[in-house]
Specification:
Blueprint: E1 2-11, E2 14-24, E3 29-33, H1 40-48, E4 55-60, E5 63-64, H2 70-76, E6 78-80, H3 93-104, H4 109-122, H5 138-150, E7 156-160, H6 168-183, E8 187-191, H7 195-201, E9 204-209, E10 212-217, H8 219-224, H9 226-233
Parallel strand pairs: 3-8, 3-9, 6-7, 7-8
Antiparallel strand pairs: 1-2, 1-4, 4-5, 9-10
The structure holds adenosine-5'-triphosphate.
Adenosine-5'-triphosphate binds at residues 11, 14, 16, 34, 36-42.
Length: 237
Amino acid sequence: MLELKTVKKHFGALKVIDGVDLTVHRGEVVGILGPNGAGKSTLFNLISGNLKPTGGQIFFKNNDVTTANPWTRTRAGIGRTFQIPKPFGNLSVFENVLVGATQGGGMTISAGRPVANRLLDLCRLSHRATTPAGALPLLDLKRLELAKALALNPALLLLDEIAGGLTDQECGALLEIIMEIQAQDVTIVWIEHVVHALMRVASRLVVLAEGRLIADGAPADVMNDNLVRDLYLGALE
Ligand SMILES: Nc1ncnc2c1ncn2[C@@H]1O[C@H](COP(=O)(O)OP(=O)(O)OP(=O)(O)O)[C@@H](O)[C@H]1O
């Protein structure tokens, strides 16, 4: 589904992504962990095309998308959520999803309407359909972020700290939706600091530190890795 080959992103002298190799197979849920500033969101921006790499190559479904624009990647099947949700605050929840289906997903308005309704249902937002997105509480904002991304009909969904700021109960509600999305043959790569949420769904964990992958494997193995434990306990210099 996705392959990164020696991907680098430098901002001047700052090597934010420093030669990352990563392969994600169809059907996987890959969790990405790493300390603040490790380069996780930058990695997503490289995959979604919001940033261009300094070096390396990115393949999506075996096509080289390294230099492709974000909208080309979107239409090809890469959807994403953003760490800070920024819906159109004056549009209703339904309209926000419809914009995703028509502008991002390329559907006509009449084809997009039932899709938007189905996604509101999936994301437990039907009761908020006519609410202005700017008036939503945090959990519903996160649900809307998911619905908007799904409106693009992605084969690969990138989730950027979607559980951040939620209570345990809210996080459980979001996980239910993510598990349903996973069951619909969507491959997921999920950056998250809420480790217990990742552990519920991830089939694999990778850990990024200072722009490099320092662990990649089964979740239990990665969490027991000494280097990873040291990193999370702050024992590295
Ligand atoms: N456009 C940019 N120009 C210069 N530096 C940048 C730019 N974007 C990100 N950085 C730097 O790259 C580093 C990694 O940032 P990034 O947001 O990818 O980290 P992260 O792992 O997602 O962190 P967090 O967990 O806090 O969200 C940070 O030091 C950040 O300041």
